[in-house]
Amino acid sequence: MTLRIEKVAIWYQNALEDGWKEDEDKNKGSNGKWIYFGESPTNTQLVGHIDMGRVGNVMVWLEDGLQIAVPTTYTSVKELVHRKNMCMECLDMNVETQRVGFAGRYCNTCATELRPKIEERGWAD
Ligand SMILES: [Zn+2]
After folding, report:
1. Containing domain of residue 12, as a range?
2. 105/54 same-domain check
3. Averaged pLDDT for residues 43-71
4. What residues pack around ion ligand 1 (CB closer than 5 A)?
5. 38 Cα to the center of ligand 1, angstroms
6. Nearest to residue 18, comparing CAs of 60, 51, 63, 67?
7. N or C: which end of the chain has fewer CB within 10 A?
8. What is the pTM of this model?
């Protein structure tokens, strides 16, 4: 989710206030900030990447390794986890989702349409 830098800074701040932690090891020599919600960096419920470089960006992955459609303002861990059943393309809620590409989460309709575009020949090379 591309956002204004100021919005990303607030998202990041709200996540930390809600109990997310910085992944110190991953942040060494990294552009942007890796954060997680869970017991430890290797036992997480949610993983996030915050980019406040030239373009503001927030990405969040669930335990299943797939991304979610990130809300423009931070909501809560519960709400983010609930997005497991939300399509990143059409933003439909409470739908069955599946992986497309490395970590995309799409409904069956969007997955059928997007898979040929995202998973072009040699996409995983
Ligand atoms: Zn969809």
Report:
1. 2-85
2. no
3. 95
4. 87, 89-90, 107, 110
5. 28
6. 60
7. C
8. 0.91
